[in-house]
């Protein structure tokens, strides 16, 4: 069963974000979550950094899936970010990251969290999809690709 169409909103596709570090990406995601879910941005950034301390969420091939548990969040939230330029992310292949799918889950959602992470990892294995995500100028099209509507 696909979870991505349930957790990703059209307004949560950010293309060509101009940042130079993980910190800046996480701050921007925190701001978006704060505006849309009334969750303090510091909770989001702290949660994402806490997870990164355990090991990089970079998958390789220019993709990362930063994720964190957020106390007070009612349901899982996905935010797709394509960076204007790739940034270092300590991925296993050593390549910088340009495509990120940030996953925020309620602090009690362990099984759902793992199912969504598995679905994301499988999705980003597709070289064709990664190339389409890098080339598309239309956030709506990117949303449809990721949510299985295209």
Automatic annotation (TrEMBL):
Gene3D superfamilies: Mannitol-specific EII, Chain A (3.40.930.10). One of its GO terms (molecular function) is protein kinase activator activity. Residues 6-149 form the PTS EIIA type-2 domain. SUPFAM superfamilies: Phoshotransferase/anion transport protein (SSF55804). Signal peptide: none annotated. PANTHER family: NITROGEN REGULATORY PROTEIN, PTS SYSTEM FRUCTOSE-LIKE EIIA COMPONENT-RELATED. This is PTS transporter subunit EIIA. The lineage of its organism: Bacteria, Pseudomonadati, Pseudomonadota, Betaproteobacteria, Neisseriales.
